[in-house]
Specification:
single chain, 118 residues, mainly alpha, 0% strand
Length: 118
Amino acid sequence: MHSGKFFRIIFWLANTGILVAALIPSPVPGTESINDKILHGVAFFVLSLLGSIAYKNSPVSLVLYLAVYGFLIELIQYFLPYRTFALSDLLADIIGIILFLLGKKVFYKSSFMNRSSE
């Protein structure tokens, strides 16, 4: 299987898993003791990583998609009696995306610097 197609499948499976976790009534088992904002940040960091591998030529589209995706999850939660809309959750999603982008930039910069000094 072509690696791009493989990572696209993994990216969309992760999207689906996060959506399901965001819409079920109770927390995902094993995550009760982890701060909710950390879970949001990590989830969107991972989505950013997977998406950047799966869709290498669309970084701006990916960031916009993930930000809108995070907002839509919060919007759906607003209408669920057992969930709430929280801007702080959306902010945590966006921070996860930003941390990935910063990490990617630092990684590529250090990789480039290491290669050019050889």
